Amino acid sequence: MRQILIVEDDITLNQGLCKALKNDKWHIVSCGTANEARDQFAISDVALVLLDINLPDGNGIDLLKEFKFQKPAVPVIMLTANDTDMDIVNGLEQGADDYITKPFSLSVLRARVNTQLRKAGDIHETEVFMSGEYTFDFKNMVFSVSREVVELSKTEQKLLRILTENAGRTVKRDTLIDKIWTDGAEYVDENALSVTIKRLRDKLNAGGRIKTVYGLGYSWVDQNE
Predict the structure, then answer these.
(1) Is cis: bond before 103, omega within 30 of 0?
(2) What's the sign of the alpha-carbon dihedral 122, 172, 92, 37?
(3) Euclidean distance between the first and final Cα of the chain, in Å?
(4) Given its phi and psi angles, is residue 7 left (phi above 0), alpha (psi -120 to 50 degrees) or beta?
(5) Are 180 and 197 in contact (CB under 8 A)?
(6) In a designed cystine with 76, which of 49, 83, 102, 142 is the match (CB 3.0 to 4.6 A)?
(7) Which domains are delineated in the chain?
């Protein structure tokens, strides 16, 4: 069984991450120091790494560079309280596949982990997305709000899937249009996206979850954000 390696020295957060990501597809291995993480990374079949930038015996960026040199295909998501643009750019330039600043919601973390695993080829279907009263099973096309099933069109399902896969991040309007309307049409009325967004919000009662980022696009917002 492949492993998700969690490198986080905060014991409470480490335990919370292990609990949030535990399932029957992955073995969760947690470490509190850089040296422990090096040992586990070397001997384990690691599918993904969650890596804190501030460790008691080293810097997460240095560890990131080591991991990417040894196994460049293994996705690494950085976890840190450092949220300045320079910190984020530095992590991404050194090879991080994603970057999440503390505090963060566990549902958003799960979505981001699933996205990276799917990109790496370790999962082929999005896991069931759960956030508060919402449960979205994309594989079986069952979508519920407070346990009440809601019927969604194919277009609405595509839109919802993209937003939840990128939970906590803004997806640009152009990106959504390109990914949803892929029938080869040379021109797609941008109003089609606005109409689909409104229908999806109304059906899911998700006015507070599907956020409009004016001038950019849309994002799925967790209830705790």
Answers:
(1) yes
(2) negative
(3) 34
(4) beta
(5) no
(6) 49
(7) 3-119 (3.40.50.2300), 129-220 (1.10.10.10)
The two three-digit tokens of residue 86, written as one number: 């320079």
Pick the closest to residue 56 from 1, 110, 10, 102 (CA basis): 10
**Tokens representing residue 164 in the block:** 């939840």
The pLDDT assigned to 223 comes to 62
In a 10 Å sphere around its CB, with 0-12 CB exposed, 13-18 middle and 19+ buried, how is residue 58 labelled? middle
Side chain identity at residue 95, one-letter code:
G
Tokens representing 215 are 């001038």
Q: At 90, list the tokens.
A: 């530095």
As a whole number of angstroms, the distance between CA 6 and CA 25 comes to: 16
Given a cut of 70, the residues of the chain with pLDDT beneath it are 1, 24, 82-84, 122-127, 182-190, 223-225
Q: What is the mean pLDDT of the chain?
A: 85
Angle between helices 85-93 and 60-70 (to 10 degrees): 20
Instruction: Read off the tokens for 54.
Output: 């501030």
**Alpha helix (H) residue ranges in 49-181:** 60-70, 85-93, 106-119, 154-165, 173-180
